[in-house]
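Look at one such:
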Amino acid sequence: MKTFPQSFLWGGAIAANQVEGAFQQHGKGLSTSDMLPNGILSPHQTRQDRTPGIKDLAIDFYNRYPQDIALFKEMGFTCLRLSIAWTRIFPNGDELEPNEEGLAYYDKIFDELAKHQITPFVTLSHYEMPYALTENYGGWASRKTIGFFERYARVVLERYKDKVKLWLTFNEINMSTHAPFTGVGLPEEASEQDIYQAIHHQLLASAQAVNLVHSIIPDAKVGNMLLGALVYPFTCSPDDVIAAMHKNNQWLFFGDVQTRGRYPGYVLRYFRENGIEVAMEPGDIEQLASASVDFISFSYYASGCASADPKATEVGNIIDSVPNPYLEKSQWGWLIDPKGLRVLLNFLWDRYQKPLFIVENGLGARDELDGDGEIQDDYRIAYLNDHLVQAREAILDGVELMGFTSWGPIDLVANSTAEMSKRYGYIYVDRHDDGTGTLERKRKKSFYWYQEVIRTHGASLSE
């Protein structure tokens, strides 16, 4: 089999806070992402001393979406994963009534996608929440935030129930243990006790959202979204195998709860041994058990290794791991491991027996215009080609794979570093780290490569 299934969804993935800009237009409130003008690797600021950042305009998708969606259609997209900015709907998070201008904006987006026969695939919360909820309630540390999120989810599900049939709850929900301000609105120095309490509230909110989707839009499907942080043992030493097991369990915990509806024993042991006591109220366990997701979605950029020797670990981009001597690194130090995607797909399929969806995968690189003003991004083509070949191998292995939405089909602002120079797109955007540029869009070589991959359902991929 050289082709992907006819029902396979092809496209790309973007996030509101990395593409839209217009960060205070039409009633939008400040989000936690707006408070990170230099990326999640920098300390956040207070509202009073916030300085302008590149995300404030991003790539101006807010105003240029018809042009960008037309380019996606030209590539052949059948699916676009995007997020709704919670702060466009409820600027401070705790209002009783939504902001109509925000709701109307996404109506226009979904109508534009429908015009081009592109399926919208919507994330309810993608690395942002109303900053006012962190100021006034402590973010997800407060159970009240569950109710605020439920109100937001109910409003958008009711509003778009005839336009959106694929939903995700929280983007890379397991990242909260590594970047708590981004994930759950807590200070970066927050204790594990506080982080896991906030995570419990977010898992309850995710379960509520799953049940809301099933009740409001019976013909829709809703999934979770994990950062697929696959970790290998550094050696065949049993101690390294156990170290890898522990590292993988740190992120699989989230998939286990959202799929199986209960806290797994290995996490309860970790809580006991580290003095973590997650406060639960009557009905919490039943709430989690009632809301198994319909499918598992995940991002995959790199694999890592784990060792029982703490001296072997290197500080990485957000997540630390042991370098793998068998793999090359990207310009940002991420290990390039296409075969790891096949391993991960088989691993998740065996564990959950639910359909899978690759909702992020791509190569961040510094693209340079050649003498003719073109971008010959063969490195990106090679990366994506090799990963898609392994995804196809996983399908042959028996994995049920719904689709592939590569990260950043158009250049956007990097979430971790707030750079434009870390480019992922098939479409170049003339904007630079210092904020200069015309915002002009330009097709890269990879644009035409991906266009052919989609047209041939993968038959054009190189082995």
The chain has one domain: 9-455. Residues 192-216 form the longest helix (25 residues). The first strand starts at residue 9 and ends at 13.
